[in-house]
Amino acid sequence: MADSILETDGMTKEFLGFVAVGDVSLKVRRGSIHGLIGPNGAGKTTCFNLLTKFLPPTRGSIRFDGRDITRMKPAEVARLGLVRSFQISAVFPHLSVLENVRVALQRARGNSFDFWRSDQVLRQYDARARELLEDVGLSAYAHLTAGQLPYGRKRALEIATTLALDPVMMLLDEPTAGMTAEDVDRIVALVKRVAEGRTVLMVEHNLKVVEGLCDTITVLTRGRILAEGSYGEVSRNPEVVAAYLGTDPSIAGGSTHG
């Protein structure tokens, strides 16, 4: 489909006979926020690893923006604009917040050896780094080392470093995991803002976040697609309720354990 930016056909990953992801055919609409939810062990993070080429599929194909990326390497798909964040915040704790974003900008431009250049040369990236920090609400923290940031702010910094790579599509792995309610609200607003003009695919446990953000939701269980649709559609699906929350009569307004 012309409006699909990411498509998988029969995507399967087996580990020594165990099917972690089985025959997943997924279509993510360009410009949408698409949620991937399901019980623990449903295969969500494995799907992310397959899509971003940290794992090769056992069978099936993956296409991004009209190109077959099934056999590409992670750096190759990142250069095409398919960029992910990780469930565990990945920042350089001993560098400043500004320097973390600057490193990502250097990498995006292919300047792998900028670390060895003078500080004056590296300062060419400062203006754009400060713009990105402004975008994610971290301008006041630019001078701090990343290790000093509260957890929720570290996740915002990770989103800034992801944006530094100028992604066409962002894959966010549990962006609100472990956060306070205040941090969750801040990250939800941030995801809405950065999604303008790009596509987002996100794994998320917090169903209120999913309900408030996602245009389309795909529900996985035991590595296979159980249901797909709007939040209202999947929340009323009896199979989804049984798989996701067991005996709970409704997933609407639920908050954890995806």
N-to-C CA distance: 29 Å
Radius of gyration, taken over Cα atoms and rounded to an integer in Å: 19 Å
- Mass-distribution shape: globular
Order of helices and strands: EEEEHEEHEHHHHEHEHEEHH
With strands numbered from the N-terminus, the spatial order across the biggest sheet is: 7-8-9-4-10-11
CATH class of the largest domain: Alpha Beta
CATH fold call of the largest domain: Rossmann fold
Q: Counting H and I runs of at least 4 residues, what is the number of helices?
A: 10
Number of domains: 2
Strand tally, please? Answer: 11
Give the integer mean of the pLDDT values.
Answer: 86
Structural class comes to: alpha/beta
- The residue ranges in which pLDDT falls below 50 over 5 or more consecutive positions are 247-258
Query: Please, what is the CATH homologous superfamily of the largest domain?
Result: P-loop containing nucleotide triphosphate hydrolases
CATH architecture of the largest domain: 3-Layer(aba) Sandwich
- Strand-residue fraction? 15-25%
What is the assembly state of the chains in this entry?
Answer: single chain
- Sheet having the most strands: 6 strands, mixed
